[in-house]
Amino acid sequence: MPCMRTQVRERSRDAHRHKLEEEVAAAAAVGAGGFAFHEHHEKKEAKEEEEESHGKKHHHLFGRDDRSRARVCIYN
Length: 76
Prior knowledge:
This protein has 76 residues and is mainly alpha-helical. It has one helix and two strands.
């Protein structure tokens, strides 16, 4: 049986590794969520561009990138 000091050292090392694994998993989850959000908006913009090319036009007076303000749309 290993001495007490060795057991403490091993537990400390295991706890540190576990903490790092949790941080990596959290970062991966945040990254995956951001990527999904980005893909959703790219798909949405592609759909809007396709609709505009087929005659269904939206004219956003405040711009598409200004998400903080209310939008006023004029439909043709």
